Predict the 3D structure of the following.
Amino acid sequence: MRSPILRRLRLGALTVACVYVLTFLMVIALPGNPFQQGQHHIPPEAEMALRAQYDMDNNWVYFWQFLVGALKLDFGPTFTYNDWTCNQVIASSLPVSMLIGLMAVLIAVLIGVPMGVVSAVRRRTWIDVSCLTLVLLGLSLPTFVTGSALLIVFSVYLNLAPIGGWGTIAHLPLPALTLALPFIACVARLTRTGMLDALGSDFVRTAIAKGASKRGVIWKHALPVAILPVVSFLGPAMAQAMTGSFVVEKVFGVPGMGQHFVNAALNRDAGLILSTVLVFATLLVLFNLFVDLVCAMLDPRIAEGV
Amino acid sequence: MVNCEKRTINNPLRRLLRSRTAQASAIVLFGLILLSLVMLPFSVRWHNAQELTRSVRHPPAWSPVQLDSNQAADHTPRDTSSAFAHRAGSWFGHDDLGRSLFYRVLPGFLVSLAIGLAAAMVAVIIGVTWGAMAAMAGGLVDQALMRIVDTLYGLPYILMVILLKIALTRPLTALFAGHSGYADMVILFMAIGGVSWLTMARVIRGQVLSLKNELFVEAARAVGAGPVYVVRTHLLPNLVGTIFTYGALVVPQAILQESLLSFLGIGIQQPTPSLGRLAADGVEAVNTFVGYWWLIVFPCAFLVVTLLALNFIGDALRDAFDPKSRAATLV
Amino acid sequence: MGCRLASLDWNIVGSMKLKILAAGITLLLFALVVYALGSTSPRADLTYVNPSGIHTLDPSRMSWTQDFRVALNLWEGLTTWDPQTLEPLGASAEFPPMISDGGLTYTFTIRNDARWSNGDGVTAQDFVRGWRRAIEPGSSADYMFLITDRIVGAADYVAWRIEAVTQLSALERLRDGWGIKETHAPAIARLPILAGIINPDGELSQQIEDLSIDWAGVYDDVFTRHVGELDTRFDHVGIEARDPRTLVVRLTTSCPYFLDLLGLPVFLPVHESIDLLRMRPEGAPITAEGLVVYDPQWTKPLYRRNGYPGLITNGAYRLSDWTFKRRVRMAVNPFHRMAEKMHCRTVDMLVYENISAAIMAYEAGRVDFLPAMDVPYDHEIARLSLSGERKDYYLCPVLATYFLNFNCVSDEVNGVANPFVDRRVRKAFALALNKKGIVEQVLRRGDRVAKSFVPPDVISGYTPPSGLDRDVEAARQLLVEAGYPGGEGLPPIELLYTPSDELVSQALARMWEESLGVGIELRSRESKTFAEDKANHRFMVARGNWYADYTDPTTFLDCLRTGNGNNDSGYAGARYDTLLDRAEAEGDTDKRTALLRQAEAIVVEEDFPIVPILHYATPVAIKPYVSGLYTNARLWFPFQSVKVDR
């Protein structure tokens, strides 16, 4: 499987490069001044000088200079947080986001898959409808509502978790759970559809005809097949969970990476936008590759097509 | 009980109509739409009726808050339907400016739905055009277009929406000079639609690629029909199912995106209400001193019901139209 | 990327591989947990919350009150303020200083026991270094004007430096073969080498690019000459370290509030170790563009590049730890003269972006002090405070005003005619407002209705003019006079604001619609777009606020001077400017106050470039077991005299 992996990596690198170019174009087209902070207007000469210092007065130069820096993993300064570099910002927030994202995906799989299986097996009964309704609630409420509700119930009234912040294991479950809710719905739906397809397929009928038990059919024959679309979905889902958690970070006070996308955009901070986008795109490419490898592992027939 | 019967029904529409959850959802949705439309004249009049003296943050009540004699004259309704409508205004309580939440949630529901549908249409238009173009053109153009889709997938959704919104604000406001309310709505659903078309493009491309090789297309090309004609007359009818399916899935996503943008402060422009805006305001008012439960319960209830209904309908559509599905997976 | 269905025999395929995969994921998870969670430390003596985190700890660049709060506990300037009366007090320098030449020369004697956190003595040179950083292009920022406006020679020095920076930036581009921008061209045209060659009336950038000159040589020439003159030019600025303990400052005009000004972070000293982190490409003291730049990491406590010992400060506290977006920990500066007597040995500043969560944490006892409670239900907090139910909630009237800007200068806004160039229309809109309704019914958080721009009862010795009361009839009459009877003929009025002003803006719109019969269009923009639209006069009515920089009316009134960078309304009042100029030159305090009052009366009673709506009152929460924290109009909280008896 060597050369397909390399080929995918090369393709991924090309995608990341395209992402960089596209983001750069969007950034320079944005109106707004990144150097204006606070209530006083910055004198125009000072602004001109700052632009010259950061090579931001010449887009072409900035493009190459940032790219060269990025390849050396040095993402330059950020104006949103004056005393920190993009590297420090990403280095401190990415592990936090990765942890929460990973936990969220795990929770989504651990809850969503069984729900989907139950729903599929008990198709067209009230169990199916209630399971579906329950998981779809995760997709029917905005995350800031579910997050605030969980915060108030578990942290304030039940005193089971710290009130936001970060630093101990106890800070982890609530944000991860809030983030997981929409994914639980997607995973359950995918599992359900996959299971229904699998249960209606020929090889399952063969297995039943051969005398396999009900439990065996569900867990040993149908589920491994049904799980493939879920695994495939997990790739982009993990990248999304890691970087799209702005609301969770705001509600629970978690120092993750999602807020930097939003703050960088609202502050027109070119360096931070570009660096976070590059990190996101790289993560996405890597996760997609990883997830495809796992798929291939589960189903050897895919390995040849990878 | 594992049911192994293959109960495939070939007509997708009939499959759709058999789904009980879809039926229930549709009934509920239409009921709400009907209610909102009936109350629309009152909503338009009263959605921004600020009462700074008597009803600020008043909890729900069966009848309007007691008026003092000075104000009674302005507010005495003239006929029974108006009187009833006036009474209904207190059912959901009042917000920070004394406005009736009832007459904000109902039009808010319509606005959210409208944004969702508009964004879905934008996504459909862009996605279908993109995918069809890529598939029909083939070769390098196809590769380039799909490469762009891959690139756009690699951009974080939330960043894209914000950047699009910021970028579109100035030109569209200038275009709609003097009607900034409309400009904002257009900007909003264009920004949301502008990031939601990617899956649609991929799926449509796949469909068109497989349809391209069908006999009837080859026959049309043999007769000399141009690619646009082929797409329009022969391919589109076959794509309708997929379009509806994936389009319907965009609607609830778009409504949630709008609520996220409202939470960030860059969503729909006040005083136009939307469920997302009302929910965001309600959440921020949550505190441990005084419970303003009505500010969050009612908008969220509407939001949940609407999105559940839309999700169920979307699922039913997908199950009905998905050509690969071999089992009747409807509930 | 699709994974296709297949039939598998579960037992054979990949169970080994899957086990390895599962083990790998578990290991990764464990490693992440350990790394991402970091280490915990015991609770500090005093814990407080700052919602947004520190923007910067660089004293020359900071402009946010939250940053000031930390910086002024870490560093100590020449003076500071009494936490209860806000009177200037001595800090690193003996108080009062020697004032001579009719208030134009201040001579400060640095205290013997003023020490840095590594034991070094504080010298006058440290102050010169700090003040110079505050005006040098490359390390200066918006508060630079406090030095350039008042100190002899500072404005000239900065102008000379900026000219050189512009020339060097442009010459760099010419040397590398890029064209120059039109904005840089005039500076290049002023180079002596181009005198007589360039036609000043033509398109400069084109002419310059067409010349065949050895730009590299010109660049080197200008650069070397500039470097040579740097220090000699700075000697002309009125900041002098006569000896290690004497600092002499010369002002351009007498400034009665100068000692009050000196408490601000822009006047803080900087330890000499910062020179280890000066960016010196090729050994020169300035960068290639002529900027003075220091490694921004100099504010970190553990930064060690180039032998740097980490941040050294001279205040009551030193910086012990700073994790991004989580916490700033300050610990006692062992060399400070008050070190023995301080009760609070450690202070933690936590970052809670969700202020409701911060309030919940305060209620649960995890936070001791909340200097800001900016939430949508602050009316409830105000009620609890005013009724006495919660004695630990305080409503602090601050030296800040919320007002509306009218666009006095543009004829058209976004293609629509702007009616606010007419004074009568502005006055009409101002008189029609129900400010009391906004303060008492909409916001209900204990702010004070504003009739004047400068808040009353805060600046001792200054009573602002009484302003005009609400008068809807007069407002309608004014509209008739201006040619818009009953609001007819007026275009839809655009009200520009940021999302935090939602409620007030909606209420304002409603008020105008009802009393004047006009149509209002609400335009909420996020802050950067808002700031740009405001700066470029793309609004009809825009919200504004101003927090006083120092305790004198001019901090407010200077904003409305013609051409001032913060004059968003574009107001150009000749009478107003003259009165302010006369006040600046006036030595007698009473006469000066009278002139300022007259000027302010023009704004709030006649011309109405702005309409003040309210003076802020900030709710602050201080736990009862914390003593030594006093509320004041500048939200200035020194921690050195705080005692926590939990």
